[in-house]
Amino acid sequence: MGQLGSVFTMVLMLVVFYLVIFIPENKRKKKYAALLNNLKVNDEVLTKGGVMGKIINIQDEYIILESGPDRTRIKLSKSGIGTVINLNTDAVVEKK
């Protein structure tokens, strides 16, 4: 009877681990993928490296970002986007 209790405890711990770790991570990944798929030209974004700029061109894997007063253009991987900033309210739409 003692071994059955140990097995049950291990299974219960694995289920709790799955619920606490993997389900929220999958939701976060889906939300981030939706963020990347909904990028549009003229969206203002903040990169994971801290560069803020406006999207001027979107390609399959990359975007062209315009930043700074002298309009410096940066070719950036889509996965480098950290947040999209809503220009109407200056509020962050999506984080991380």
Protein traits:
six-stranded antiparallel beta sheet; Preprotein_translocase_YajC; single chain; transmembrane helix; alpha+beta; 96 residues
Model description:
A six-stranded antiparallel beta sheet has the order 4-3-2-1-5-6. The protein is an alpha+beta fold and 96 residues long. It has one domain (2-94): Roll (SH3 type barrels), CATH 2.30.30. It contains one helix and six strands; from the N terminus they run αββββββ. The longest helix has 36 residues, at 2-37.
Strand order of the largest sheet: 4-3-2-1-5-6
Reported CATH architecture: Roll
If you average the pLDDT, what whole number results?
Answer: 88
Low-confidence stretches: none
- Estimated helix fraction: 25-40%
Specify the overall morphology: rod-shaped
How many discrete domains? 1
Topology:
Blueprint: H1 2-37, E1 44-47, E2 52-58, E3 62-67, E4 72-77, E5 81-86, E6 91-94
Antiparallel strand pairs: 1-2, 1-5, 2-3, 3-4, 5-6
Family: Belongs to the YajC family.
Subcellular location: Cell membrane
Main location: membrane
